[in-house]
Amino acid sequence: MASDAHLAVQGLGKAYGPPGHRVEALRDVTFHLPPAKVLGVLGPSGCGKTTLLRCLAGLEEPDGGEIRLGERVLWSKEKGIRLPPERREVGMVFQSYAIWPHMTVLENVAFPLRVRGLSEREVRQRVGQVLEMVRLTGLENRPATDLSGGQQQRVALARALVAQPRLLLFDEPLSNLDAQLREATLLELRAFLRDLGITAVYVTHDRAEALTVADHILVMREGRVVAQGTPEEVYFQAQDPFVVGFVGRVNLMEGRLLAWEPQGRARVELAFGVWSCTGPGALPEGARVLVAVRPEHFQPRGEGNPLLGRVVSVAFIGEGYRLEVAPREGPPIRVDLRVVDLPRAPQVGDALELRVAPAWCRVLLPS
Ligand code: ATP
Asked: What torsion do the CA atoms of 35, 38, 43, 47 make, to the nearest 10 degrees?
């Protein structure tokens, strides 16, 4: 069932509402997703994620731009092409699963094939295949509502797969599951999508979910794409403070760029001292900047920039401690330390000397 279809979206725009009260849900959205890859679309509520999915599925009419799946144009303003949803070869899995409670597992999954008028023999064969893929074999005759949340989610997936789509769309598919089941199902879904090799777009507002499931990430804000790349690129190299903060916990510390050093390092004056940081070379000396450091990049020993301060709060999170450390000057800094790196549990009031390597201290331009 591997998909050979790449997804290319060019200049997609969509506004709602009457003139004067227009909401621009999508503004010039452009991206390219290679075949058999998963795109994670991430962004705050109202940034246009669902609108994008609905445009891809054909449930919403864009105002401009083009959508191509493989060699086929699904929608193009310029070319006047508007393929209806049923001709797009696109499957969708929703947050609510939208499975039918009065039907059995088999009836739910068979439904898209029966409406197309396939023979009963063919229906049984294809349904059998996908149920095996999603590990629901043996539950064919169960009423769908007798299943666990995770199993219901797999029925929805099976129903989307049975039509053999070239593109699968997921809209927050795990948000109805509890945290533990969500994590397990997410890893399972990721392995499943990789094995299957199907092109997919996965919308979520949960950053960990997007980073886990996706090969490529698109971060949206107010209808625009503000960052795209692999999960690592977006997490470690994004330049926009909004993106850096949206994809993970971070300290954004105000500072002033003092000078450039060899190896592209920048000396930055912060409230509590001068640090050596990594930055884009184009910034002028004297510029007001932000230095971004993720809490997990501090270490209790080693080389690097020093952070001396007192612990003002401690939260135990299992694998480690989430601390706030107040330096001599300036706001408290968020620090995550692993249990295995500490001689004992930190306490409020402890004086700590931590280190962070210049490579993890990134200079950004304030937005
Ligand atoms: P969430 O994460 O909350 O689901 P989202 O990122 O999916 O949000 P969209 O549902 O795509 O965002 O909405 C984008 C913008 O378009 C929002 O400002 C929303 O209020 C607006 N919008 C969406 N659908 C309509 C509609 N049918 N009529 C008018 N405005 C709409």
From this structure: 40
Distance 52 CA to ligand 1 centre (A): 10
Q: From the CB of 252, is ligand 1 less than 6 Å away?
A: no
User: For residue 69, what are the β-bridge partners?
Assistant: 7, 72
48 lines ligand 1 (CB under 6 A): yes
Q: Determine phi and psi for 294, rounding to 5 degrees.
A: -80, 145
Phi, psi of 93 (to 5 degrees): -120, 120
Q: Is the pLDDT of residue 247 over 80?
A: yes
pLDDT, tens digit (0-9, with 9 covering 90-100), for 146-157: 888 778 888 888
φ/ψ of residue 108, rounded to 5: -60, -50
Cα 253 from Cα 63, distance rounded (Å):
40
Q: Is 191 in the pocket of ligand 1 (CB under 6 A)?
A: no
Residue of the nearest CA to atom 25 in ligand 1?
16
**Sheet of 7-16, strands arranged across:** 23-33, 7-16, 64-69, 72-76, 81-82
Residue 33 makes CB contacts below 8 A (sequence gap 6+) with 6, 7, 8, 39, 199, 201, 216
Give the Å distances, CA to CA, from 226 to 26, 59, 338.
Answer: 12, 25, 32
| The pair of three-digit structure tokens given for residue 130, joined into one six-digit string | 């996908």
pTM above 0.85, yes or no: yes
Reference 311, options 354, 353, 348, 356; nearest CA is 348
* pLDDT tens, residue by residue, 296-309: 999 998 899 999 99
Query: Taken in order 337, 343, 349, 353, is the CA torsion positive or negative?
Result: negative
